[in-house]
Amino acid sequence: MKIGGLQKVSLIDYPGKICAIIFSQGCNFRCPYCHNPELVDPDIYGECQSEEGVFSFLKKRRGKLDAVTITGGEPTIQHDLEAFVKKIRTLGYLVKIDTNGSNPEVMNNLIKKKLVDYIAMDIKGPIQKYGTLTRSQVVEEKIQQSIASIMISGIPYEFRTTIVKSQLNLDDLLTIGKLIKNARLYVLQQFIASKTLDLSYIHEVTYSQLELEAMKQKLMKDIPDVMVR
Ligand code: SF4
Question: What's the mean pLDDT in 8-35?
Fold first, then answer.
């Protein structure tokens, strides 16, 4: 497992739990607004942390932390993700995985083996816009397969979209609403320009709180639980 970073505690990343966050290094997408460029662009990768060090930390924090979130980058491109997750669970932690949905086989395997307790999947936009939004070659069916298998998994999950105003309009969001109709939870994430993969995106903005709330109300026709974060 290529570990690009460890956040030792978070009160907000795993709903209702105190967690550590492990950042995997490497991603198969190139979203221009990505706020973890050092985990995505090989030219600026930092040095990886040792698994040993991370597990030594997790062993010490047993009883103080409830869970571990594995995020990225994109965790599902790590060839040893399953073994890594098993080791974390052996220590008694719940596991949340954040994914871009490009590898439904990997997620399905974890779901079937009951190795994941919470899934957060990015929905980048309407399926037809994925190539443009992620600046990558995306197999659209794989995104749809991920959505379908997560929705029937029986595991708590959320779908979420980071909203850059120039990229997504109301119609796009309503199209997403149809794509994930009756999902358990849909989160509209405000884009915050701190660091971006494409430096020109540092000047981009999200919608106002009022605009996002209005979008949320419209989306609730298709998805009962929508939140703005
Ligand atoms: S936003 Fe997520 S999927 Fe997109 S490049 Fe960054 S880590 Fe990859």
Answer: 97
Q: Whose CA is nearest to atom 1 of ligand 1?
A: 34
**Where does the chain show beta strands of DSSP type E?**
3-10, 19-24, 67-71, 94-99, 118-122, 157-163, 186-190, 226-228
- The mean per-residue pLDDT over the stretch 128-136 comes to 96
Residue ranges of alpha helices (H) inside 138-208 are 140-151, 170-179
Collapsing DSSP to helix, strand or coil, 68 comes out as strand
Length of the chain in terms of residues written: 229
Average pLDDT (29-37) is: 97
Q: Compute the distance between CA of residue 114 and CA of residue 124 in angstroms, rounded to an integer.
A: 26
89 lines ligand 1 (CB under 6 A): no
User: Residue 184: which of 220, 153, 136, 223 has the closest Cα?
Assistant: 223
Q: Is 184 in the pocket of ligand 1 (CB under 6 A)?
A: no
Residue among 94, 88, 138 nearest 117 (CA): 94
pLDDT, mean of residues 153-175: 98
| Mutation probe of ligand 1 site: the residue of 27, 130, 138, 195 with most atoms within 8 A of C-beta | 27
Question: pLDDT-based confidence at 8, cuts 50/70/90?
Answer: very high
65-82 pLDDT per residue, tens = 999 999 989 999 999 999
60: CA distance to ligand 1 center in Å?
30
